[in-house]
Each structure stands twice: as structure tokens, then as C-alpha cells.
Design goal:
The chain has three helices and seven strands, in the order H-E-E-H-E-E-H-E-E-E. It has a five-stranded mixed beta sheet with strand order 1-5-2-4-3. The N and C termini lie far apart (118 Å).
Length: 167
């Protein structure tokens, strides 16, 4: 019995389908943007991942489950998880893993962790430890009232409970 031409045409097609089933191809990962990636105080390998969703909604998304799913899929390690002021988690991962997580539809954004340093105080009115403010603007008394008369010339404001005289 000779094979028919239709059977010969199907054989290569079946071979292609079998190959696809045995070795599935994965879709290329969409890479997202990492905010503050080039910041001077950036901490390499540490990120904040903020998820889609409203933290004030009556039904919160599962932050722990989403974080675990993202790390299983793209790699990295989950640190702290946040579900009150924002929905997200801290991540320790490579730059490529963080960019892959940033491209996931469940993620609002990924931000590079940065070192925070204290800054010099800004020039302006100084509040002393005894609660006396020098260079008080607008001639306001401690109770928020506008000073009148001789008291208006003073640039010193002392809270009312401690002040012996009231203007």
C-alpha cells in the first residue's frame, strides 16, 4: 500500500507541531523602566516595586502573592512588603530582573533604592529650644493674632502660655 499525497503533506506539519509541544518557546520579556536608576546615591541591586491598585480600595490586592509570583517568574528576593500607604515590596535583584519586573502589567513602577543623607538647614527663622521664634514673619503673635502698636515692631514670637505679657 502506497502512502497518499495528502498523508505525505501532513507528516511535516505533524513534525513541526510535535517540536513546538516538546520545546515551548517563551515570549520575550518586556523590559520596563527603572526610576532613578542613574542617581548618584543609587544602591546597586536594591529596588522598590509599587504594584497597580489603590491602597484605599475596600478590597486590597494580595501583595504577598503578587510579589512571590513576580519573583518566581523573573528572579530576585522579596524583602519588606507594604499594603497600607502603598502596595508594593522591596526587591533585591539584578538590573535585568528589576527591569523585567517593571515591564509586568501588575507593576505600576520600579524605583532604584537610594541612600538618604541629611541636608543643611535652610536659612530663615530659627526656632530655639525654648520655643521662641526669631524673625517671626507678619508680626503674628503665638495665637495667630496680628500685633498692634509697640508690639508690632518686635520680630520675636513667644508662645502665649509662656509669654508674661500679651499684646
Amino acid at each position: 500500500m502506497r502512502p497518499r499525497s495528502s498523508q505525505l503533506a501532513i507528516a511535516p506539519l505533524l513534525a513541526v507541531v510535535a517540536t513546538m509541544l516538546v520545546s515551548p518557546t517563551t515570549a520575550p520579556t518586556r523590559l520596563g523602566t527603572i526610576i532613578h536608576q542613574d542617581a548618584p546615591d543609587a544602591i546597586p541591586g536594591r529596588y522598590l516595586v509599587v504594584l497597580q491598585g489603590d491602597p484605599l480600595a475596600p478590597r486590597l490586592p494580595d501583595v504577598s502573592g503578587t510579589a512571590d509570583r513576580l519573583v518566581r517568574r523573573y528572579g530576585g528576593t522579596v524583602g519588606r512588603r507594604f499594603a497600607a500607604a502603598l502596595l508594593g515590596f522591596t526587591l533585591t535583584a539584578s538590573e535585568r530582573q528589576a527591569a523585567a519586573i517593571a515591564g509586568d502589567p501588575a507593576v505600576r513602577f520600579v524605583e532604584q533604592d537610594t541612600a538618604v543623607r541629611p541636608v543643611e538647614p535652610l536659612p530663615g527663622p530659627v526656632i530655639r529650644p525654648d520655643n521662641t521664634q526669631t524673625n517671626a514673619p507678619w508680626h503674628l503673635s503665638a495665637g495667630g493674632r496680628v500685633r498692634r502698636g509697640s508690639c508690632a515692631r518686635s520680630t520675636r514670637s513667644v508662645p502665649a502660655p509662656r509669654s508674661p505679657r500679651r499684646c
